[in-house]
Amino acid sequence: MRTTATKTVLTLAVLLLAITGGFAQNKPQLSARDVIGVPAITPVIAEPEAKLIVDAPLAAELAKGKVIIQYRTENLKIVPVYGEAGLKVSPRIGHLHITVDNLPWHWADASNEPLIIVGMAPGKHTILFELADTTHHVLAKQLISFEIPETTTNHSHH
What we know:
By secondary structure, the chain is of the alpha+beta class. The protein has two domains: 2-36; 51-155, Immunoglobulin-like, CATH 2.60.40. Helices cover 18% and strands 32% of the residues. The chain contains three helices and nine strands. The protein is rod-shaped.
């Protein structure tokens, strides 16, 4: 009886080896890449160009000596994040540089709120809006020119 059981086990083993490819027959072992495939390494897709759209100052407010300028961005979100790590964020993030009357300095604005300036003297002025990435590299800019009229309202603070 033992011989029959042994023959049955051996027969099943031979059949199993025949089905699975037999003993190691010096076949090269399949690598993980052969079985799974090559991972798709997708390069970062270039995002559309960042755009800055700046409206003219509100005329009714200019007459009162107030400068209120609304703006919006496309393909860049204004947030208070600065530094190299911000360049890896998608969608793109950044802030504004604001320069008044071509002065040698500017300030960074990440409020995403309308620009409001009060107390400017009557006369012609400019404000340069620069859209910058988190490392202060300028991506887009727009220069706004306007005039604050001479009125009695402008002198109410004196």
